[in-house]
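Example record

One chain of 179 residues, shown exactly as stored in the release files.
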Amino acid sequence: MSASGRGYRYVGPHHVIAAVKAADGGATIRTAADFADWVAARSAEELEEPFTFVVGTDGTLRLAPRRSEHVACASGDRVLGAGEVSFYRDAGRWAVNEVTNQSTGYCPDVASWPSVEQALDQADLDHPDCFTHAVVFRRCPICQEHNIVREGHFVCVFCDADLPRRWNVDPNADHSDGP
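Predicted structure tokens for this chain:
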């Protein structure tokens, strides 16, 4: 489990997860050699854009093209983290340039960072000390819509209700499992 004690279920549109096939999963990156093989198969144009990533419940990084659905990258499974990541070469080594938790399918809490960090460390990728752009997701307790909290303004963009300070996106999550 993640440091927050939470695995994230897919909470996005049902038609998206219904279209996921077991073979859709992203490339599994367990080691530096796995990453080297994966990155060698990417074009220069592909490497200019961020990639979709998830961290599986086994702690393993999975990568897919940017426009891929996170739930497809995860083969429909729960994740410990999800977002977008970009890479660059530094002194002959690959490193993470930017990494976010931006996944509107899983809406992971910013507390998912330790799981993402551990997966990047396992793949021997240098990386920032935290999400370079952390997205705060909340579900409105009144209208039930998912929101992205911007500039610390915890108000629903759909109905103007106050949003909770604590992560609450998955209504079926066991809230005793983390902050």
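Notes: The first strand starts at residue 27 and ends at 29.
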